């Protein structure tokens, strides 16, 4: 679990630095670039569409993990719009809360005391 936590921290640092440099060059409005590539039907657009679907999976998992409560839906929205920047921090927090038990991290409150038979 330590290696995974280190990977999450490394990802967060690299993403933060990269994002900072891109904002310096292009500004903070990513939507014209993101959706413009999709509208142009390019490989960059295909990647953006695929990535957007992965963001949706991430958002749905976070909301599901919190049993679609208002807080869970709010966290899901954050997961969708903030991507890996949100998910790395979220996972680091949940790993700590779960005491390193990754089944609890994945399932949240749905975790049972006995595995299914």
Helical fraction = over 70%
Structure summary, number of beta strands: 0
Unreliable stretches, pLDDT < 50, 5 or more residues? none
Rounded Rg: 17 Å
Distance between the termini: 26 Å
Treating each run of at least 4 consecutive H or I residues as one helix, how many helices? 5
How many domains, in number, for the residues?
A: 1
Largest sheet: number of strands, sense, barrel closure: none
* Chain-averaged pLDDT: 93
Query: Into which percentage range does the β-strand content fall?
Result: under 5%
Overall shape: globular
- Please trace the helix and strand order, writing H or E for each element: HHHHH
Output the structural class: mainly alpha
Report on this structure.
The chain is built from five helices and no strands. The model has no long low-confidence stretch (mean pLDDT 93). It has one domain. The chain is mainly α and 117 residues long. The protein is globular and about 45 Å long. It has helices at 2-26, 31-39, 43-65, 70-97, 102-107.
